[in-house]
Amino acid sequence: MDSTPSPSPPPSSSSAFELVSHALGRYIPQGGTSAADAPRESAPRERVQEDPADGRQEQILGALNLDRELRITRCNLDAPVFAGLDARAGKPFVDLLPPGDVPTVTRRLRQVVESGEAHVARIQRLRRGDGSELVVSMSILPAASPEEDLTVSVIAMARRLHLYAAETAIGTSLDIGETAQSLAESLLAWGDVAAVDLDFAVWTGEGVTGKAQGRIHLRRAALVPDRVWPEGYLTPGDDLPGDASRLLAQAVLRDDAPQTIVIPDRQAVERVFGNPRVVRALVPSGRSAGVACIPLVLDGVPPVVLGVAEVWRRADYPFRDSELFDLQELVARTAHHVDLARQHQREHTQVLALQRRLLPRTGGDTIDIASIYQPATPDSAGVGGDWVNSFPLPDGRTALVVGDVVGHGLGAAATMGQLSMEARALLSAGLAPDQVLEHLDETVTMLDDAESGLAAGYSALGSTCCIALYDPVGHHVTLSSAGHLPPILVSPDGRAGPLSLRPHPGLGAEFALREPFDVYTIGVPPGSVLALYTDGLVEDPALSIDEGIDRLADRVSRVHPWDALQQTARDVVSALAPAPQRDDVTLLLARMIGYRKGDTATWRLPARSDAPARAREHVAALLRQWDARDDTRERVMLLVSELVTNAVRFATGPITVRLIRAGHGLLCEVGDTGNGRPRLRRGDLLDNGGRGLGIVHRLTTRWGVRWTDTGKVVWAEIAR
């Protein structure tokens, strides 16, 4: 086949094989001997390209054409580096592979034939006739039409060029496993098997400086090539035996200085490791018995070993000094990327722990709650700012909160934590949802300030939040939204749809764009299900956001009243979460139960002097009906009398008295039209007033105030 330096341009209808073949002249060195000119029956020859100082080394391209039975029909492997590869027409392509690689490569070839999608640039070994192996970058190119054949292009890399390519490929991900895998694939160019073992502290993101090196605990992070390994051999995810970790740590840290060590043959390996179980765990096969162990070292005083890279090769191909220099250079540069991945893992773990901490634990007697938080892929910029929370309020209601903070990482996590805790504190203090959002809006604006912000260069402007308060007595939800996607309500008869909310620009909007936060009150009969979520669940590149919300509504509408809500939430996320997942996915499902009718009673009284007496009469009759104990009845009667008396004295308009039997306590509420906040204070010995709240404080387990559109409600709880 023509391999002149300046080939003529191929016709536009050329096959992939012809296109690759025409490009060969640009990569074959001038004066090189082609495989066609060399005698086929030559004696076994040494490996080519062993000397990195050889000025004729180039990145060499070759091509093979395969039929649909994966037999070679044509080949262009004329460059000297491919000498010794028996690629005759009619021979199965898998005969060029090491036996252990045949299943994996065959599967990849079949996938390209069936799918028509190329498989590009995977590190692969080819076996020469003398038993030596050549590491290449192999791409599988599909045929342009079903009648045409498959093309396999191979690039044999010179050591220095391979070193450069490896350095540019490693560190493109902040995932520890992917970084280690990239290193192992690059190391395969120097041997038959490559493994990377990392200190367990690297996996967990813990600090590794100052550790006692003799106590290093190694876990296998990567192993190539992909094949079936003998029983007992360590594969990714396995922990190295303690004595193996200790031996490797001591070997590469002699005289407190990290060093590369070479064990040349099987006898030396067995002598160094001693224990047959350790040998079985570390030595890949009988042929690959020589190993170079290169430490991944983090510069410092003293230096810290993050792990060990191991390159195994046949004992009859010993490592040369030039190769060891290349290996040390590559591994040394990779150590920095491993440490960056460790730091990212620590940040990821911290943020994820905060996310998990905010998830609702359980519901209660009046509401059933299930939540799912599914972070984006580990190689993203970090866990996002999605958060969801649910907690009971002291007055018997339940708060449901979901938010989406702009950005990822620690800045978003810090803002998320602050907004979540602030929302919980304000709601527990009795503020309405719109009032809480007003405070959160001010907080986001403050955090965006360059001087007082949480993180330099981070802005939370445009974050969203939705707050819903469930009243189990009135069977309604009061909610307010700051730019968040609308909740979905499923009625007991199965009808579902998003709530119609007026759009809002979100938290921290510019002053000119700010709008008041609307408040909506929606009836939710027992059996209703409310779904709160973030955009990661409904955003899909193939669908509009409205279509995504409709899909969620349809899925949630299938929730049966008897279905376990947590499993339902998992099923919904599994069915709707986009793949690949680009953003965090958050879902909160709340099934409304409410109080039974016989567990609550409400009376409306005029604000007159006889109101306390009338309230005591109503409460006494109800407590007899509930079979309350005498001491409980006396405390409740005194409590109601004090609260109603204060309402008559300091407020105007009608007074509402409500008694709720909840769990192991009784909840008493007295509402009026006043806007003053009752405060507990110390009274002087001769004071006649101000003792009512002191009595309330001593009678109850807790008490507080919440604000309404018409005034306030003072609530108090008494243990039964």
Describe what this molecule looks like in 3D.
- The chain has 720 residues and is of the alpha+beta class.
- It contains 16 helices and 27 strands.
- The strands form six sheets. It has a five-stranded antiparallel beta sheet, sandwiched between helices. Strands 7-6-12-11-10 form a five-stranded antiparallel beta sheet. A five-stranded antiparallel beta sheet has the order 13-22-21-18-19, with helices on one face.
- A hairpin with an 8-residue loop joins strand 4 and strand 5.
- Helix 9 packs parallel to helix 10.
- It starts with 15 loop residues before the first helix and ends with a strand.
Instruction: Compute the number of helices.
Output: 16
**Order of the strands making up the biggest sheet:** 2-1-5-4-3
Largest sheet: 5 strands, antiparallel
Shape label: elongated
β-strand amount: 15-25%
**What's the gyration radius in Å?**
36 Å
Topology:
Elements: H1 16-22, E1 60-66, E2 72-76, H2 102-115, E3 119-127, E4 133-141, E5 150-156, H3 159-169, H4 176-187, E6 193-199, H5 200-204, E7 218-224, H6 242-252, E8 253-254, E9 257-258, E10 261-263, H7 266-273, H8 276-282, E11 290-298, E12 304-313, H9 321-358, E13 367-374, E14 384-392, E15 398-408, H10 409-428, H11 433-447, E16 464-471, E17 476-482, E18 488-490, E19 496-498, E20 520-523, E21 529-533, H12 545-556, H13 565-576, E22 585-592, E23 600-605, H14 611-625, H15 630-650, E24 655-662, E25 665-672, H16 692-699, E26 702-707, E27 712-719
Antiparallel strand pairs: 1-2, 1-5, 3-4, 4-5, 6-7, 6-12, 8-9, 10-11, 11-12, 13-22, 14-15, 15-16, 16-17, 17-20, 18-19, 18-21, 21-22, 23-24, 24-25, 25-27, 26-27
